[in-house]
Amino acid sequence: MKSNNDYKIDFAEASKILGKSKRTLSRYIKAGKLNPEIKKSQKGIKYYFNLTELENLKKPDTTGQATRQNIKIDKNNDTLSDLKNIIKFLQEQLKEKDRQIKKEQEGQRKLTIMLNRERNHTLLLEDRSKDKRPDKNDRTEGTTSQSKWQGWFKRLFKVE
User: Fold this and answer.
1) What is the pLDDT of residue 60?
2) Pick from 66, 76, 90, 116: CA 20 to 30 A from residue 131's CA?
3) 59 secondary structure, DSSP code
4) pLDDT class of 110 with cuts at 50, 70, 90
C-alpha cells in the first residue's frame, strides 16, 4: 500500500516530468494509466502524483502497440506514398500522350505537305490549260464573226 509520502508531485510538475500537457494527464487519469491522490481544498480539487508511477509511465511502451499519433503518421505516410505512386503513374501517362501528340503532329505535317503539292500541281495544270488556244472545231454559235472583229479591233488599237 502506498503511503501519503509517495504522493508529492502536483499536476503542473507531473506534466513537466512526463513532457505532456495537462490535458493529456487528465486523459491518462480517465483511462486509468495514472492514479493520483485526490484532495479537496478551498480552491477546488488538487491532484498529487507518485514519482515512481510517473517514471514508469515515462518509459517507452514496449508492447508494440501503436499510439494514436503513430497511427496518424502511418496513415500520412501511406497517403503520401499513394500520392507519389499516383504522380508517377500520371507522369508516365503524360509522357505517352506527348509521344502520341508528336506522332499526330508529324502525320499532320506530312499530310499538309502532300496537300500543298497536290494544290500546286492542280494550279500548274490549270495555268497550262488557259495558255492553250481553243480548238477551231470547239466554237459555239455566234462567236466566230464577233471574235474575229473583236480580235482585229483590239490589235488595231492595241486594247488589252
Assistant:
1) 65
2) 116
3) S
4) very high
The cell for 127 is 495555268
Within the chain, residue ranges assigned H as helices are 11-18, 22-31, 51-58, 68-131, 143-157
d(CA 18, CA 24): 10
- Location of C-alpha cell 496513415: 75
> What is the radius of gyration, based on Cα positions, of the chain?
50
Burial status of residue 26 (CB atoms within 10 A of its CB: 0-12, 13-18, 19 or more): middle
Q: How far apart are CA 159 and CA 153, in angstroms?
A: 8
Same-domain check for residues 87 and 118: yes
User: Once rounded to an integer, what is the mean pLDDT over residues 103-124?
Assistant: 90
- Name the band, by pLDDT with cuts 50, 70 and 90, for residue 81: confident
Do 125 and 69 share a structural domain? Answer: yes
Domain that holds residue 104: 64-130
Whether this model's pTM surpasses 0.85: no
Element (H, E) at 44: strand 44-50
For the sheet with 37-41, list strands across it. Answer: 7-10, 44-50, 37-41
